[in-house]
Amino acid sequence: MTQAHPGDGPQRSAMPANSRETSPETPWPLSHFSGKLKAHIEKVTPTWVEGQLVEFTLRNGNAWMTLRDLEQEVSFSAVAWRNVASGLDGVVQPGSRVVAQVRPNLYEKTGRLSLVTQQMRPVGLGDLLARVEQLKKQLAAEGLFAADRKKPLPLLPARIGLITGRDSDAKKDILRNTHARWSAAQFEIREVATQGAAAPVEVAAALAELDADQHVDVIVIARGGGALEEVVLPFSDERLIRAVAAARTPVVSAIGHEADRPLLDEVADVRASTPTGSAKLLVVDEALERENISQARARMSTGVQRMVAREAEWLSAVRSRPVLAQPETMVTVRAEELTGLRRRALVSVEASVARARDWVGQARARVTGLSPQSTLDRGYAVVQTHADDGALDAEGLPAARGGWQIVRDTETVAVGAPLRVMVARGELTARAARVIEAEDENGSREGST
């Protein structure tokens, strides 16, 4: 319980044991809260921190200092008591980078928080480079520096993103040399801090902004020469290196420090030794390209002329061949062959017709020679007799015309029988007056009528 004070009125109730039990009706006195907070802070284990020493003052053997974060706007007051401060005088200087083992301390009367320094030493350049080398091995193991991750630069970028210092010589060199090579080159420029603790953050932010711009085809991070800690350290920051590795747009590192290479050179898609040299990587030489185009056109023209001349010679050779020089020859030769074939066919047909005509004439002669008319023409006559004894007509000949038969033997003819005699021209009628028998082989007659 708190003790009652004069003029306080009614006594307060029991004080809450912890902060969760406090309320508007049961608050902690500010001094009690300060004591609790001091006790809690003093439980913090001494911690090594890194920062920039921006203020260092010795009073009564004690050192009063201010430590600022290397990247963010965060600072703490620090104190080193006599036993520690005596070893810091002349060892650390305002503006230097230091590491210190500190323990937080709360001054209850004013509520001021400070850092009681137990140890402090400056961070040497060798230590910083050792950290960079360790980070390099770590990032290389993750594959951020692998060659297969690097993207090719565009042949002729439509717009070039440039991240450089404010009104820096690097910016002027890049613009001048790039436009000297390609007058139509266009830039999207972001001016940022290129040294100090804020440099990695501002460069990474500008990189993200340009990487999101679809019109930017390549991004150049450029800085001129300078001290090692001004060039290597800001551009070896892990956050910047990872931002470059994650960028979709090709990145060119143009940091002008040949002695020691920042990690930006390792992760960038292409490294230029100087900002001036980056112009040769970004665009082609317009004059050289025009000359190359002229030479290519001349070679193409010469090649086309040679090809045309070669084809013209071939065409002349083809046209000089008989089949093209005198194309009618092909028709004339075939016409002559056709005429010859027609002539031979006509002669063959005529010969065949003549032979057939001769054969027909001979056959006709044979047939004519064997015909009864030929026999009659030679003086022979054909005698017919009638086998019927029927009625006679007015001339005394048989009335029936169908019974006439050729007389081949005298025995078939009776005396007085009517006869018909056919001669070469016309017919005669007669009667058999007598029958003369035919002579035998001995010349005698067998009988006669």
Summarize the structure in short.
This protein has helices at residues 30-41, 82-85, 125-141, 169-181, 199-211, 228-231, 238-246, 263-267, 275-282, 286-320, 322-325, 328-370, 372-377; strands at 47-59, 62-68, 75-80, 97-107, 112-122, 160-165, 187-192, 218-223, 251-255, 270-271, 382-386, 404-406, 418-422, 427-431.
What does this structure look like?
- The relative contact order is 0.06.
- Helix 4 (169-181) runs parallel beside helix 9 and helix 5 (199-211) packs parallel to helix 7 (238-246).
- It is built from 13 helices and 14 strands.
- By secondary structure, it is of the alpha/beta class.
- It has a five-stranded mixed barrel. It has a five-stranded parallel beta sheet with strand order 7-6-8-9-10, with helices on both faces.
**Sequence stretches where pLDDT stays below 50 over 5 or more residues:** 1-11
Largest beta sheet, briefly?
A: 5 strands, mixed, barrel
Report the mean per-residue pLDDT as an integer: 83
Helix-residue proportion: 25-40%
What count of helical segments does DSSP give? 13
The span between the termini is 210 Å
> Which overall shape is indicated by the principal axes computed on the Cα atoms?
rod-shaped
Rg over alpha carbons = 71 Å
**Widest β-sheet, arrangement of strands:** 1-2-3-5-4
- The helix/strand order is HEEEHEEHEHEHEHHEHEHHHHHEEEE
Query: What is the strand content?
Result: 15-25%
Q: Return the structural class.
A: alpha/beta
Count of β-strands: 14
